[in-house]
Amino acid sequence: MHRRRCLGSVGLSVLTTMLLGSFWGCQESKSPKKPSPPTTKQSTEPKSVEAPTEEKTEPKPEVKPEPKPEAKPEPKPESQAATPASEVKVPLGLPPLPTAADNPMTAEKIELGKLLYFDARVSKDGKISCATCHDPKMAWAEHTPASKGFGGHVGQRNSPTVINAAYATSQFWDGRAKTLEEQSVGPVGNPIEMGHSMAAVVEQFNKIPEYQTRFQKVFGTGVTEEGFAKAVAAFERTVLSGNSPYDKFKAGDEKALTDAQKKGMDLFMEDCNTCHKAPLFSNYLFYSAGVGMKKEKPDEGRKVVTGKDRDRGKFRAPPLREVANTAPYFHDGSAATLEDAVALMMAGGADDPDVSPMLKGLREEKFAPEDRKNVVEFLKALSGEYPIIEPPKLP
Fold it and tell me: Is 246 exposed, middle or buried (0-12, 13-18, 19+ CB in 10 A)?
């Protein structure tokens, strides 16, 4: 234990770096000019001068200008819709909900996003929706090492949870998408996920009257890729988990955690909180635990995005809320249980030269089996309350 404290934040900083996921990683007119009012031309001919006469002339009929054509009302901006982000309930323990400045949260937009999330017609064969691989009844994940996509293709990566993805500073295991909006359209065009194209989805959904009506109400347009991305992202931002035993303990309930969980929490906060920083339990940076690097064709992770050798085998430090409910673990789903995953991480990761230095520091710690059990128990205390949504009736 003395050596753990000497390591300080080095210790277990990436204890559970690869336990959970970086979301969706199974493998984007001018107004018409108003017409000018009609004008009457004035005659330029000189008037003849006539002698005055006693006869009265008939007055000329008054020429009234034609009425201006009524301008068509412009579409209402989406910010005028009903429910502001402040009305999305954030559970105990979570920070304020972040939203995109150009994508305000509204009740109508969230409902539209829910429909799109559950609609399998976004895939080429009409069989795979977002909810297929990120199932609300499976803690918004899928309990398989990798998900089966279009045409039976199976990717390299585990499908991580949608829960609390609103707080992530990047999306996917390798962080290739910066925002939820960017992430939400990625799987549609992936040949081993949905195998479709956003252009085809937009064309198809524009033929569905209810989607036409809903997009007009929310965005003032027909179905568009941008509107699709914004609606799905708005819905995903409502999938939150908090009010866990850990949160209740932090709020003052001393009995919310067991003795084992308190011991595990002390160990975790001493050595793991750098990479898995509370309250979200991730700093959303990238580390290598050496997992899967002995394969014939290993997944190079972050290097695929940056092209830098130093990023070989690095994956985003996953947020750990609900981690007990989102097995299997690591980017390739190679750890079947939370106990297996914690054991590997507390042993300093897998045998690979590119393992992050903070993990390598654990190899000399010789943690006792009881330490591992206590950490597992603490991670279970990060399970709280999250929405379980039934599939809606689709248009």
Answer: buried
